[in-house]
Each structure stands twice: as C-alpha cells, then as structure tokens.
Predict the structure.
Amino acid sequence: MKFNEIKLTNPYLNLPQECYDRVEPSPLVKPFLIHANKAVAKLLDMDEEELTTKVFVNFVNGAFLLQGSDTFAMCYAGHQFGHFVPRLGDGRAINIGTVNGLHMQLKGAGETKYSRSGDGRAVLRSSIREYLMSEAMYGLGIETTRALAIIGSEHKVYRENWEKGSIVLRVSPSWVRFGTFEYFAHKKKFKELEALADYTIEESYPYLVNVSDKYLKLFTEVVKKTAKLMAQWQAVGFQHGVMNTDNMSIAGLTLDYGPYAFLDEYDFNNICNHTDQHGRYSFGNQPNIGHWNLQALMVALSSLVHRDKLQKVLEQYANLYTSKYLELMRKKLGLKEEKENDLDFFKHLLGTLQTLSVDYTLFFRTLSRYNGDRTSLLKLGLYHQPMNDWLDVYDKRLKEESVPFIDRSMQMLKTNPKYVLKNYMLQEAIDKAQKGDFSVVDDLFQIAQDPYSEHPQFERWAGVTPEEFKNRKLSCSS
Ligand code: AMP
Ligand code: MG
C-alpha cells in the first residue's frame, strides 16, 4: 500500500486513561535514512518504494503521521536490579499506531511524561545495536520485537560526550511488560489491572478470551513463554544484560536491547553490563532471574487470582525451562535420543568449553562438521585433554544413535549459526557509522537475517573474537 492509503488503529487507547499519556513526537534535526527493513515493511503492508522517499524519513522522524495515528507513551513500573521503582514508563518511546496487529513505536523521539531526568533521545550507537540485534534474534528464530527502520540526524545529544541523535521505529505484537502490571498492582488500581489483563489476553493470548480461570491461564502462558525464551537465550549464548521487570515482555519476546552481548569465549559467569556489579544479570543467572521476575509478576496478579494457584503454576517453571533447554542442546549436538544424564553431559561440555576458553558459537559450528577427525575441534582450545575426554563420551552417544553423519551435520548446520552479532562486530558498524559510512550496518543486517548460511564474503566474522574485544562490558548509557 501507499503511505496515504495506510490507516492506523490505536487499540491501547481503549484502556483506562491511567495506562498511557498522549504525547507528540519531537522530530530530530536534519534526519536521514540509515536502513529500512523490507521484510517488516511487508508485514505492515507498506510498499517497498515508499521506503526510499523523503516522506518515509519524515515518518520515522515523527514529523509526518499516517492516517489514524494518535500518539502516546505507555505507563509502567518495574523492579530494577531487584529494587521496585513505582513509576517508569516509555521515557523515550512514542507509540504511533498499529497495523496488522503490529504496534509501531518511535524510540528516541523526545520527552514524554515518563522521561524523569532523561532527554527522550537515543544515540546512534544504541539505535544501531537495537536495530541490528532485534533482526538477528528474529533470524535465529528467537521471539523478539523488530524494527522497520533506523534514521540518523545532526541532532546533538549529550551522554558522556556530545553524540548524534537517532530514532529506531520498532514494531511488536505487544509492548506490555511485567512492569505494566506491577504499576497498577502497586497503586491498588485493580480495575485498571483487570482491564490490562483482558487487553493482554486479547492481544497476545486470544485463545484464552472465553475460557474459565483466564487470568490464571494467562499467567500459565507467560510462565511457559518465559521459560522457553530463557532456554533459547542460554542455548544460543545470548545475554540480555538488563533483565529488569520493565524489560520483560508479557508476550515472551526479547525486549529492550541495551548492553546485551553474545558470548565470545564460553563463560557461565560472564557479565556484559558495566552497571551490574554483582552479576545479577550474568549469563548463567538469566534463567533464575526469569523465575524471580515471574514471581514479581505473580505478586502483581494476585488481586485477580488466588496466590496459591499462581504459586503452583510458577513451580512448573524450573521443569519447563530445563526440558526446553535440554531439547535445544540435544539439537545443537545433533542428538535425537533423550537420555537420563543429558544435563550432566551438557554440563560436562560447558565446563570443558569454559576450562579451555573456547568460543561458544564457533565450537558448535565446528562440531556440526565433526566426523571423527578431532583436529579442528582440538585447535579451538588451549590444550587437548578435556576436549578429548568429552569427545570420547560424545562419540559413544553418536554410535548409539547411528544417525548418518550427513543427516546429523545438515541438521546441526541449521541449528548452530555460523554468525552471531558479537559486540566487536557491532562496534565496527558503529565506528564507521559515526563517520557517515553505513556499509557495515548493511553487511551485518544481511548476516542478521540469515545467520546459518556461509556468506564467504563475511568469513572474517565467523572466527574467534579478537583478543582485545573478548567479553567486554558495556555501559547502560544509551
Ligand atoms: P532501559 O534501561 O532502557 O530499559 O530504561 C529504563 C527506563 O528509563 C525506561 O522508563 C526508559 O524509558 C527510561 N529511559 C532510558 N533512557 C532514557 C532517556 N534518554 N530519556 C528518557 N527516558 C529514558
Ligand atoms: Mg526498558
């Protein structure tokens, strides 16, 4: 469709007034397009040709609104690093309307009622990180919000230094957070809480609309979705970095990309967020935090459902998580049969990778071509014995399964990505972009969309992370 034919709806505005605040975007100075996502445009019924027009840039800049657009920011609370903050909200994201069930948001489009001391802006580096990584997670088959486009500008934004402002037009089937529920529960606004629960069911779990005990079942679904998401993050080696309850999606999506990281060398205790001094959001602690956050959601829902019933559902989380994680790890190793000691076997592997400082992604990709010759696998580690020990056990498992090598290998190459967007790669894209060269953004976008293919032209990104960039921490400032 052409731009002037598209008509937006704003279903969130049917909720009680407390849930949001109407606010208009404040456009950036001298905006220009950096990248647009054709696949997302299609989901929004937008013609591809529109993406190259000046009108499109104005649209992403919040200077031009489509028909039916009624712009607003959403209100929420959240537990940040374990401490409850009663009011947060979209401090720099402005919702501009919905098409085909996808809600569009301009991140970095200026102040809202919820900006607190912030300026409502997003800088180029953080926007590039969100734009690329949300697409990369989608490419890996992990549930996530996505983005239609990213623009740059000459707008001056102050962080530790002066930087340039940028906007990402994000899209998602849901922007509701655990913290959205916490906001109303804390304020004892139970009517609003119930309206939000009904809205969420309709939006993300429509098959529950007419069932009995629907709020309990809503919680059950969120527990399942969260367990699955945590298992996917752990299996692929993704670390979110800021798993505050305001960054937890009620629809089980990866949400709010900040100082995240893909593991370089495997390190269970890796911390990617500079602010996270005690490792609350360390890689290995993510599944536990998923549980902690669900518990906070449970408390928020307990005016709608008896606490004991919610508690019983929450108790299923550990099993749901573990069985999903085992399933994903078996796939990564090309194993078909479930064994009682699977978890120990995987822990043996992870311990080996940690001891030998092996690159997580490269290991599984290399293993995908393993047919008895250990040379390339042994080369990945500092020394050989632990890897040989583990491979002895692996060989035995493979023998018991008798799946032909070629079948196993093909399945594993579709499961273990050749490329993940490590922070050093994103940094290269950012460094060039700061100088006006967006070619690496384009390249990484291609990889993001198709991480399992070989892409010989990008081979240099398929190896180990250069020493100076390994397991670096990033600041939250964005
Ligand atoms: P985050 O850590 O990005 O999830 O943000 C936590 C809270 O701070 C949310 O309410 C954000 O909207 C708000 N926030 C973050 N950065 C800014 C900013 N530059 N201006 C206004 N609000 C912000
Ligand atoms: Mg956030």
About this structure: The chain is about 40% helix and 10% strand. The first strand starts at residue 20 and ends at 22.
